[in-house]
Predict the structure.
Amino acid sequence: MLMLETKAVFRRKEPDIETTNCVVEKVIRLSGAEFDRFSKNLLRDWDFIRDNPIARSYDEEGRCHCLLVVGEGRRDGVLVNSEGGSYARYSAFVPNAEALLSVEQYSALAALNKKLVTMVDTIAGQAGIVSPDGRGVINLHDWGEMLDIDFATDSTLRSTVLDMLDSRPEIRDWELDKNELTVWRKLDDDVLSGENISDPSTTMTDMYAYGYTWDGMIPLSKERAFELFDAGHEVFRLYENGAEGVVNNQADIQFFKGMFGIENPAWTKSEQEQPLQAFILNSKKYEEGEAVGEWLTFPSDAETLRGLFERIGLDNPNKMEFTVTALRTPDYLFDAVCTHDSLDDLNMLASVLSGMEDYEIDKLRSILAGGICEIEGYADGLNNLLHPDNFDAFEFIYAHDEDALGRWYTDMHDEKPENLSFAEYGRQCAEKEGGMFVKDLDGYIMRIHEEFAHAYGGEIPDEYKIVTDALRGLQPKKPERGSEHGSKEKPSVLDEIKESRRGSLESKNKPTSKSQEKDAQNSKKRKGEHDL
């Protein structure tokens, strides 16, 4: 896939790249043919070099003063330092010199270029997040407000953005409807060929609201599940606790009262560490039949949360008309937080974790994986554990077995019992301390003392509280004239599930049968996750 075509000067096995700071005193513009002759005969005498002498070759800051030679219809250029001569005693190739000149010469153009490039880069990078089929929706009005550009009236800039999207290899198509720009990313060939497996009657937001959060699954209605199962696709029953089970026959679809899904072959898990996120659902709209929600990434602040509240339609500063239906977490927190945790608790937890060193994270992972202490509650219990008075009660050592532990203690104390091997010495130390090895981390964790304080007095510090201020900033909306309450239709899939279960959003179902329990365990192994 062609990303960029340019020219460069390569050198073989250079240990580093040496550069010189330069100041362009003057730009010399030649015809295309003359520039071609010059660039192939740099050591010849040239009148334009002799007629444009540079007063000094280098200044007191070590910068080289030179000419920039460009040619008509040629993208690249050549820097020349003649040191008073009429030929290019010192020269350097400058790729894309014309574009560089245009941007550098006009500061307003440079600022606009930066804005448009940032916008297109963001759209191209995020366009596939909204839908598994590679579709993303962008509001040009919102972008215009952020960049101080009026896309509605400036057709030239609007066309420029669309032309820039056309040049991006990640984008296969786009569609503009007033201020709403829909962009489709290119997917793998096996996804683009054959039938479209997505289901227009249900969305990823519906799935998140239901309680299932894995982005590698495309949500399906019961009718679409029947169609794809009969066509030979592997279909899954999705559970509200984040697990899933394979559909083996039509009866599995007919009598299941939840949502269905099919794996998205284009999905790949990010190699970066998953941040702590909560899916916040407008509970009032949900009860009216509309799933409106959005992911909040922690740590956050009241202003960001208020913006999210407004986007999902919250307008009552005196009521918490929202609920958390799903969480995304780093792997080591899968079983340590839950959807009943307050947003303030989750925000505090993420804030503390963001300031921890790798060693401290490994120490926390070891405590959680080893079960060396019992943590009361979920996020609030973790916040209590991470208070320095409590966290310092544990010692973590990078030692994967008894031999490594014995060597570590020998290095620490500069001695070891002569009649013991390193492994035996390490075993005795572990038994005496009551420590344990955590294989996945190649580490050893022990508890130094048993005292465990209830930190913060049961109250979250003000610096981490975001909900109250976010709600306080909401502006109540006046009902529109002639509007009818509850006039929107319910999403067909959620309508079916709610009618069959009549369950509450506030409680997540645990496995209710042996088959569902088995499905839950298999899904954990397949995705490398735990139930929330």
In short: The CA atoms of residues 199 and 324 lie 25 Å apart. The mean pLDDT is 79. The two ends are 40 Å apart (CA to CA).
